[in-house]
């Protein structure tokens, strides 16, 4: 597990860009946090890190939004889903083959996936724009990747 703090939207987005350097086709990333903690901000950073130029918005009403980048990004909002059964109905297996699946409100559907996913927990970190972010995975593959994550001077590790 890697834990860090960000003090602004800019730093949260920068962290997303760094996480994007770790992803591979077929990866699943679950974003977990309360309303307003920065799940979509982090998603924007991941998209930017994948070279996506299109404006990234929360897919709350569309449920799933596709973006073309170095690796296709499938941005899913699970808030309105009733659980893993709804994911099956979306046919997510097709998306997992060639792209990265990024799921906001991932705690609502985590039972659907094998343990080979990255869970990103975002919590309030004090002042209004501060966040505590934990990168967690039971997967040895993800643990090795997280060990290579260079946070530089922008973030507190």
Automatic annotation (TrEMBL):
Location of this chain's protein in the cell: Cytoplasm
Record keywords, A-Z: ATP-binding, Cytoplasm, Magnesium, Metal-binding, Nucleotide-binding, Transferase, tRNA processing
Highest taxon of source: Bacteria
MF terms (GO), sorted A to Z: ATP binding; metal ion binding; transferase activity
A GO cellular-component term linked to this record: cytoplasm
GO terms of biological process kind: tRNA threonylcarbamoyladenosine modification
Main location: cytoplasm
Record-stated family: Belongs to the TsaE family.
PANTHER family: TRNA THREONYLCARBAMOYLADENOSINE BIOSYNTHESIS PROTEIN TSAE (PTHR33540:SF2)
Function statement: Required for the formation of a threonylcarbamoyl group on adenosine at position 37 (t(6)A37) in tRNAs that read codons beginning with adenine. Is involved in the transfer of the threonylcarbamoyl moiety of threonylcarbamoyl-AMP (TC-AMP) to the N6 group of A37, together with TsaD and TsaB. TsaE seems to play an indirect role in the t(6)A biosynthesis pathway, possibly in regulating the core enzymatic function of TsaD.
Protein name per the record: tRNA threonylcarbamoyladenosine biosynthesis protein TsaE
Species the sequence originates in: Candidatus Solincola sediminis
């Amino acid at each position: 597990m890697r834990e860090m703090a960000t003090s602004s939207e800019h730093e949260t987005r920068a962290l997303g860009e760094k996480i994007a350097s770790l992803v591979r086709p077929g990866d699943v990333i679950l974003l977990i946090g309360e309303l307003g903690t920065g799940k979509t901000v982090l998603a924007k950073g991941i998209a930017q890190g994948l070279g996506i130029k299109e404006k990234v918005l929360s897919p709350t009403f569309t449920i799933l939004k596709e973006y073309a980048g170095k690796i296709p990004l499938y941005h899913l909002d699970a808030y309105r889903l009733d659980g893993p059964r709804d994911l099956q109905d979306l046919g997510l297996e097709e998306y997992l083959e060639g792209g990265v699946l990024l799921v906001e409100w991932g705690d609502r559907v985590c039972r659907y996936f094998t343990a080979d996913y990255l869970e990103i927990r975002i919590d309030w970190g004090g002042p209004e724009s501060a966040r505590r972010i934990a990168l967690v995975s039971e997967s040895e593959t993800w643990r090795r990747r997280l060990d290579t994550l260079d946070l530089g001077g922008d973030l507190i590790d």
